[in-house]
Amino acid sequence: MRNLVALCGAAGECAEVVKLTVYLVQMSDYPVLNELMETLWQPPYPARAVVGVRELPRGALIEVEAVLFI
């Protein structure tokens, strides 16, 4: 997520995350995701969809897809 925030900053001052799609292998990580959102963004938070999946490539536990307004 920190890489995502850094990339947004590199896209320019008007770059804004407007929607996240998050894939979680362990839905028990959902509260941690909420805490992370609160530390990386200020309200209003980006729209978000969270999807529980059985597995992700390379053994990843989370995958994030972001839509930016530039």
Automatic annotation (TrEMBL):
Q: Which InterPro entries match?
A: RutC-like_sf, YjgF/YER057c/UK114
One Pfam family from the record:
Ribonuc_L-PSP
What's the protein called, per UniProt? Endoribonuclease L-PSP
- State the species of origin: mine drainage metagenome
Lineage, highest ranks first: unclassified sequences, metagenomes, ecological metagenomes
